[in-house]
TrEMBL record:
PROSITE patterns, sorted: HTH_TETR_2
Keyword field contains DNA-binding: yes
DNA-binding region: 34-53
Record-annotated HTH tetR-type domain positions: 11-71
Pfam families: TetR_C_14, TetR_N
Keyword Transcription annotated: yes
Lineage: Bacteria, Bacillati, Actinomycetota, Actinomycetes, Streptosporangiales
Protein name: TetR/AcrR family transcriptional regulator
Amino acid sequence: MEEGLRERKKRETRERIADMAMGLFMTRGFDNVTVAEVARAADVSVNTVFNYFRTKEDLFADRQEFVESLPVEVLRAREKGESAVRAFRRDFVAAVETRGWQYGLQDGADVFAKMVGESPSLLARMREIHQQREEALAEALADELDADADELAPRLVAAQILTATRLLSDYAVRRSLAGEPWETIAPDLRAQAEAAFGLLESGIGDYCVRR
């Protein structure tokens, strides 16, 4: 549907506030910036900020709903004959090639991760987002398989897939924070991704057998 003038102005105001907030957060750190400073930078009142964003953390996670929907989109876009694990394997490896932001591989992701790591409230929000992404993917898996609401398998599969992508992203960010260039990180990250998704595809029954 065509966006009306009022809706467009509201969207633009919301985006301006969020962009100004992120600029301040990236420069000074999340906990060192107040909502009043964000309002001044965006040339709006504090009340206006809270009209669009319920909490300060919402300013940081202004695209939360979109981010939470991404795993479901990967699942639904899988190719004919392709399993859920293979779809995420293909999508992640492609993201390594393009430094896809959807997995936190873009330039500057290390600055973002450092800011989150320094703020307990942002760490809590990131855990919440991860949990909601898992729940959304599990629901989509259950829906496609017509599984019962209390069936464990969709939740287990969603948790394994998204934990794998999160750990792979963390691996890349840690090396970036240590000062390594992307050119040396990417080949190892691709190999780690192939190994991780290989484990998911083959199962972990034979993993760490005591000799």
